[in-house]
Amino acid sequence: MRSLSTLGAAFAFAALIFTNTGAMASEQTELLDRSARTIEHMKVAPAFERARSMMKDAKAILVVPSLVRGGFIFGAEGGTGVLMRNNGGTWSEPAFYTMGSASFGLQAGLEQTEVVMLIMSDRALDALTRAEFKFGAGASLTLVDLSAGASANTAPNLSGDIIIWTSGKGLYGGLTLNGSVVKARDEWNTAFYGRPAPVSDILANRVRAPGANPIRQQLSALN
User: Hey, which bits of 20-109 come out as E strands?
Assistant: First the structure.
């Protein structure tokens, strides 16, 4: 059973890899650029072809350009990502998020993958915009896996609350979200926008990003 201390260690692992103390806006800008490249990769992925037409109906999108898994006796995975809401055909400003989980076992090496989640229902978006959301903890969300490592018959239809695409291959093909925790990265949002910026304000475009958002161009090309 995962404990709170274990999940805390997972987030510490993610922070060690992805952040420096007192993150500056340049780090967020770099993450936006990497997230845009992830959308580019998804556009040409055969596994995503079936979901392409659903982009216009997505409530939001969460992009984690580098989800890392590693460790030996203790294994953890985590990454920093970007959540953007679809406001009637136009995409919101970016809200920065962190995702992490932890497990015990004899795990060797360090692996990483790109992850994109299409948020297809209001209840899924509501769950992800809570102070902290844990997959598999009573939310009863339906997940559809379109990862490169998933079987072609894994998702006979695309009816789900969250549609997941990942570039992971080999032993880490596919993604197990059960037990993963997702929460807003408030310090990153504050650094990027220059003041405290609640996720609700960001997704409703009540705050403005200091520069261009390269993810929008990639998302527009998918519609």
Answer: 60-71, 74-87, 90-91, 95-104
Tokens at 177, concatenated = 């979200």
Task: Give the distance between the most distant pair of CA atoms in the chain.
Answer: 47
Encode pLDDT of 61-118 as tens digits. 999 998 876 654 555 678 899 999 998 888 999 999 998 876 544 344 546 788 899 9
Q: What is the CA radius of gyration of the chain?
A: 16
In this structure, are strands 162-166 and 143-145 parallel, antiparallel, or unpaired? parallel
User: Could you tell me if 7 and 181 are in contact, meaning their C-beta atoms sit under 8 angstroms apart?
Assistant: yes
The residues spanned by each domain of the chain are 4-222
The pTM is what? 0.79
Helix %, strand %, coil % of the chain (to 5)? 35, 30, 35
